[in-house]
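Researcher: I'd like a structural prediction for the single chain below. Treat it as a standalone chain; there are no partners to consider.
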Amino acid sequence: MISHLERNALLCGLILALGVSLVRPFDMLTWFLETAPVIAGLPILVFTFKRFPLTPLAYRLLFLHALILILGAHYSYARVPLGFWLQDVFEFSRNNYDRLGHIAQGFVPAIVARELLLRLHVVARRGWLFVIVVCICLAISAFYELIEWWVALAAGQASTEFLGTQGDPWDTQWDMFLALGGALVALLTLAKPHDKSLARLAQ
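Model: Treating it as a single chain, here is the predicted structure.
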């Protein structure tokens, strides 16, 4: 189980990051839309900490994912300085920071979904566990793309920064493909460490 010291450090770090990112963001609507998952998920994690604590691995990954979202929210994904640096170094045709966000969108939910399915005894056979977790991550990615579509319909031109397509007609397909890749990498590389973390939590 994660220590109270680490939990409080992650919580304070996240609140601080949210506060800093709220100082003169590039676009206030984009900031709200991009940080909405963090703002909605944070109270849930706080209130379930005693009754249903997650593994330290899950909490740390969620923290990193939140930071990715918060940074993208402050600058808008197409303008994050890290993305411009990568664009210069690797000669990309666009700012690819949003690609990192979509990899995380598959990578982190894969571990969280895996943990919930195992601890709640939803899936007994490990082969099916892999398949179902990947399907859940794809569903999350697809639903996020639907949210972007709904926001675009509702907000019109004001949603441009939130969509962040940067003129790429295949942006939606890239987003879902990268989420799929992130989920696969997480399951293939972290399954054993995650199992050990789950065993320690059970003790």
